[in-house]
């Protein structure tokens, strides 16, 4: 069966109307957006895989004869062996066929006239604003607070309009935080009262572009509006800054997603069986200051300062990953989407898996599992705790310590682990160069101008790619 026939075979088996049970007939305008999301792509990919395997099956003359598959000059007598062979050897073909099938399905759907351009619907901000007329100002600004973390890969034709909607939505609900938008999707961390964050989630789930999202896609932790100094919403080239064009390395090429239970079992097997250590790498794709205060046992934690260093790290260590199984994890899962895609694009690994929902979701189910220490977060809390372990030390005296603070020197934005006792001795800088400088009590000057960091910590670091607006 050639590529065109295989793609057509996949399309025949697709039940387009039932791909998303949440989409009714009156909501067909959302189908175009949904079909380009990862959930639809994953569905097609499973169908493509099954069809590819079926195409390798040999017709047997009698029912008593064992089922056989034949591929690449080899014979396979059981499903697991042919599945493993196709996963390892024909992954690129499966991706290409899935992409072609998705494109063909979109073409057919548009040709049927079942989808119309919903740009005008999405530009109408008021239509997707929650009704807060029954709520007082105090209900939105006072009371228990929380921080929500989420992302969604989906096609956004006009991210500027969604950016305006997000700005107005968050302002209306008195939310602070950061939201990144791109044509590839949205990535956000917002904070406020639980009343406000609940309304925000409902508004997100009601919007036609984000209807593929579910409640479980929003990760929550204790906090509030004060966790961020302000609200920042912007449009970028990437929703997570890896520094690689998403049109070249797409999230659609990401590794196999493992639920926290599955990931836990694989890590458990890895820690029990020493022989697996030579075959499997447990990879932390976060920054060094994140993994310093919390990580999975026996992980490989790259010494990188920003995620934009990750591609260079992979390129320089291809032999490390060659013929290995890789288990990847990050805070909430988004960095693994692009990171695993980049690693897979090098065609050196046997298999690449990623923790679905990230460490955050894992710790919700396994607070005393194989992840020990704090979980670093990118707000003024710096870390949240699910267990009592402290795996890092004070940089000055060496006692167990995992509470970050900013370097006390003006213009320096490095994080420092300095215990209470050492801070009382004015040991509050990130390095000897900064420690020798006079600390500025007020932080950066009132001029508001950005100044370059210049200290021992930054002199040897490579240039960081800038986000493209």
Automatic annotation (TrEMBL):
Family matches, as PROSITE patterns: RHODANESE_3
Q: Do you know which InterPro entries this protein is assigned to?
A: Rhodanese-like_dom (IPR001763), Rhodanese-like_dom_sf (IPR036873), Rhodanese_C (IPR022111), TrhO (IPR020936), TRHO_N (IPR040503), TSTD2_N (IPR057944)
Q: Where is the Rhodanese domain?
A: 276-371
**Region described as Disordered: spans on this chain:** 438-469
Q: What is this protein called?
A: Thiosulfate sulfurtransferase/rhodanese-like domain-containing protein 2
- Which species expresses this protein natively? Silurus meridionalis (Southern catfish)
